[in-house]
Amino acid sequence: MSRSRLARPADRLARGTYLAARRRLERTASWIARARRDDLTGWRAALGCWARVALLALGVVLVARLIRALPALMWLLSGVWLVAAWRAGKPAPSETPAEPSEKPSGEAPVMAPGEALRALLLEVMGEADAVHLSTVLAHLQETGHWRGRTVTDLRRRLAALGVPHDRSVKVAGVPTWGVRRKHLQEGSEAPSPAPFQETSPEASTAA
């Protein structure tokens, strides 16, 4: 009995640790990649990327020395990470089995294409004119969908649904893969029955 009570929080922490670590690695990689200059070629274009890598390495060294000087700091960092992992591993209501006839929740991103898909993307976009795909993916994963997937998987899914997106969408001055409001408002129907439902990696690749 005690084993079953401990299994659920342990599973949540393990899943949250994986998701939190992956999310931070993807954001770090994206931050480094944004330093590459398109107006230069060869090694000069990548100088900014290497500078950010060096900055990260310096930060790791400084944190390691600080922890060595103040070992008690490790307890604080561990506590912060456990809280982040616990929040990231929170199960979504959609993970609970439900009858097909049950009234769908307004928060569930598993929905039909067309208007419902554009409504979801516009909801994540808020008052802005565009949204990055990394933000959309984070929203989906926080609500219990597409865990373990990447921005590339999301791009393939949107392409299969005919949703326009490109790599030069700027949000807060940062250009990367995203969707623009004007393209969503134009609209396009697609044959897929559920744009963000959980599918096998093989099915996602095929899409």
UniProtKB/TrEMBL annotation:
Residues 197-207 have a biased composition (Polar residues). Residues 182-207 are annotated as: Disordered. The chain crosses the membrane at residues 43-63. Keywords: Membrane, Transmembrane, Transmembrane helix. It comes from the Bacteria. The keyword Transmembrane applies. This is Uncharacterized protein. It comes from Streptomyces hintoniae.
